[in-house]
């Protein structure tokens, strides 16, 4: 084979290689351009959805490989990754927005006025020393109801014990505050709903024992329940 023939074969091979490389370059460039176009459409849809629904669109960092970067196996892999990213963005944008509502449940507030403990052997109502407190009803603008609570017992189990709340300021007992029992065991009581007088009043606990036996009242308190 002479020199001219060898040169002809070499030139022909180079031309074929250039043609193949150009074809690969053109094919990959077309795929990348399509992905860029699809990304632009997704970004446009994202802006439109954000404007219409006032929703939040999450931006994701996507690296695009341009035709000038040189594409081999790694390039094709990254283009495939790009396609998955675009599909993810599309599915995120087309998913219906969900709005969660939180319902706050506000329970009733309870205020306790402690009144302590005491005893009596009186057959008539008498004040139990130290078991009194001032309560200003005007300080509670939304009172639902008021109760008198505590525990009673007669250690001997003889007779009955009575207790009630007395308004010392106005000189009258508080309606529906009276409670009674005849047990020698601890009787935890709760009065019916009662009302507090308007303004700042001194409320006193009174106690009596029908037969003069020792009667005990413990852990007495007034419970104020607010709306």
Overview of this protein structure:
The chain has 227 residues and is of the alpha+beta class. It has two domains: 92 residues; 118 residues, Sandwich (Jelly Rolls). 32% of the residues lie in helices and 32% in strands. It is built from two helices and nine strands, in the order ααβββββββββ. The strands form two sheets. Strands 2, 4, 5, 6 and 8 form a five-stranded antiparallel beta sheet that branches. Strands 1-9-3-7 form a four-stranded antiparallel beta sheet, with no helix packed on it. Helix 1 packs parallel to helix 2. About 13% of the residues have low confidence.
Short descriptors:
227 residues; alpha+beta; Jelly Rolls; five-stranded antiparallel sheet; four-stranded antiparallel sheet; 2 helices
Outline:
Keywords: Membrane, Transmembrane, Transmembrane helix. It is built from 2 helices and 9 strands; from the N terminus they run H-H-E-E-E-E-E-E-E-E-E.
The secondary-structure class comes to: alpha+beta
Give the end-to-end Cα distance, rounded to a whole number of Å. 110 Å
Order of helices and strands: HHEEEEEEEEE
CATH class label of the largest domain: Mainly Beta
- Number of DSSP E strands: 9
How much helicity do the residues have? 25-40%
Give the integer mean of the pLDDT values: 76
Segments where pLDDT lies below 50 for 5+ residues? 53-69, 95-106
Beta-strand fraction estimate: 25-35%
**Count of all domains:** 2
Query: Which architecture of the largest domain would the CATH scheme give at its second level?
Result: Sandwich
User: What fold name goes in the CATH topology slot of the largest domain?
Assistant: Jelly Rolls
In quaternary terms, these chains amount to single chain
Largest sheet: 5 strands, antiparallel
- What form results from the Cα inertia axes? rod-shaped
Transmembrane segments: 6-28
Keywords: Membrane, Transmembrane, Transmembrane helix
């Amino acid at each position: 084979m002479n020199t001219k023939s060898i040169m002809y074969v070499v030139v022909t091979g180079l031309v074929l290689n250039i043609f193949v490389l150009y074809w690969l370059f053109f094919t990959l460039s077309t795929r990348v351009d399509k992905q860029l176009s699809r990304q632009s459409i997704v970004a446009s849809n994202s802006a439109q959805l954000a404007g219409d629904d006032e929703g939040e669109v999450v931006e994701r960092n996507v690296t695009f490989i341009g035709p000038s970067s040189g594409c081999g196996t790694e390039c094709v892999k990254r283009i495939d990754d790009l396609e998955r990213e675009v599909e993810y963005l599309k599915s995120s944008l087309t998913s219906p927005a969900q709005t969660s509502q939180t319902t706050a449940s506000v329970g009733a507030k309870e205020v306790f006025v402690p009144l302590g403990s005491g005893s009596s052997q009186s057959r008539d109502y008498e004040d139990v020393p130290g078991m009194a407190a001032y309560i200003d009803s005007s300080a509670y603008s939304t009172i639902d109801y008021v109760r008198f609570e505590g525990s009673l017992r007669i250690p001997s189990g003889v007779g009955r014990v009575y207790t009630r709340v007395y308004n010392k300021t106005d000189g009258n007992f508080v309606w529906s505050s009276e409670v009674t029992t005849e047990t020698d065991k601890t009787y935890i009581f709760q009065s019916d709903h009662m009302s507090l007088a308007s303004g700042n009043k001194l409320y006193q606990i009174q106690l009596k024992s029908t037969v003069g036996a020792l009667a005990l009242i413990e852990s007495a308190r007034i419970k104020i329940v607010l709306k």
